[in-house]
Amino acid sequence: MANNDDKTPLAGGSVTTAPSSPQPLPDPSTVGQLPPKQADPTFWDASKTISGDSFTKIHYMPCARQAWLTGIAAGFAFGGVRLFLRASVWNACSWTAGAGTFTGIVIWEACRWKRGREKDGMIRAMQIMEYKRLEREKKLEERREQQRLKEEEERRRKEAVKNWWKPW
């Protein structure tokens, strides 16, 4: 329901509704590649996105292969060192699992952070390219306007020179 403040009386007694206020324009520093912020997802929302296909195609996920292979190598190295230092097999296996998991998580997060930085850098590069394109268009438009004014002035000058001697 509209307020009475939004209505404007016209001649003849009819009433029109004033247009709603325009939406604010987006920040000019963005080019528009980023989607608008949404509410933070919950654990339940995240669990709905996991399917059986997620586990069969996990090797296609960015950073997963690197994190797994590095985790396996680190776990093998830590477990081997523990066995070499005459720890029990159970203790060496525990160190292998812990070191592999910890190293995998660290590598995964580092890789994701690096990819995020690269993505931000690419967005920034696109913003700079858009800014430079707009600047080039602005300069080109200014040159065209100067050229048009110069041609107009030249045309007026020629017209004035041409018509000074004609009596009619």
UniProtKB/TrEMBL annotation:
Compartments it resides in: Mitochondrion inner membrane
Renumbered residue ranges of the record's region Disordered: 1-38, 139-168
Database matches in InterPro entries: Cox20 (IPR022533)
UniProt keyword list: Membrane, Mitochondrion, Mitochondrion inner membrane, Transmembrane, Transmembrane helix
Bias type Basic and acidic residues, positions: 139-161
GO biological process: mitochondrial respiratory chain complex IV assembly
Stated family: Belongs to the COX20 family.
Function, in words: Involved in the assembly of the cytochrome c oxidase complex.
Entry-linked PANTHER family: CYTOCHROME C OXIDASE ASSEMBLY PROTEIN COX20, MITOCHONDRIAL, CYTOCHROME C OXIDASE PROTEIN 20
Entry protein name: Cytochrome c oxidase assembly protein COX20, mitochondrial
